[in-house]
Amino acid sequence: MRPGERIHVIGIAGSGAAGVALLMHHAGLLVDGCDADTPSPYTPPLEAAGITILSGHDPAHPAMAGAMVAALDGYAQYGRFADGLLR
Ligand SMILES: [Zn+2]
């Protein structure tokens, strides 16, 4: 991906995904994401950076993005949907 491209992170409020999302944001990507369990202790830095965090995933979310990543817990929740997109 290149700076300016949009990426949607499923499970963004988790400890690992939040850090990766922040790194991608600082690398110039347009990051947003969703999580079934938000806010979390890891979401304030994301919100401070201007990253949009949606509560729960909706199949319409990736339509806004050029790419999508899913944290392991996000994949467990939405894996069937993600499989359909990634194959
Ligand atoms: Zn989503």
Question: Any overview of this molecule?
Answer:
This protein is of the alpha/beta class. The chain has one domain: Rossmann fold, CATH 3.40.50. It is built from three helices and four strands; from the N terminus they run βαβαββα. A four-stranded parallel β-sheet has the order 3-2-1-4. The longest helix is centred in the last third of the chain and has 15 residues. The chain is globular and about 30 Å long. The two termini are 18 Å apart. 33% of the residues are buried. Bound molecules: zinc ion (ZN). Zinc ion binds next to strand 1.
Which features does this protein show?
single chain; 87 residues; alpha/beta; Rossmann fold; 4-stranded parallel sheet; 3 helices; 4 strands; binds zinc ion
User: End-to-end span in angstroms?
Assistant: 18 Å
Count of helix runs: 3
- Uncertain ranges: none
Q: How are the strands ordered across the major sheet?
A: 3-2-1-4
Task: Outline the secondary-structure elements.
Elements: E1 6-10, H1 15-26, E2 30-35, H2 43-48, E3 52-55, E4 67-70, H3 72-86
Parallel strand pairs: 1-2, 1-4, 2-3
Zinc ion binds near residues 34, 57 and 61.
In brief, what are we looking at here?
It is built from 3 helices and 4 strands, in the order βαβαββα.
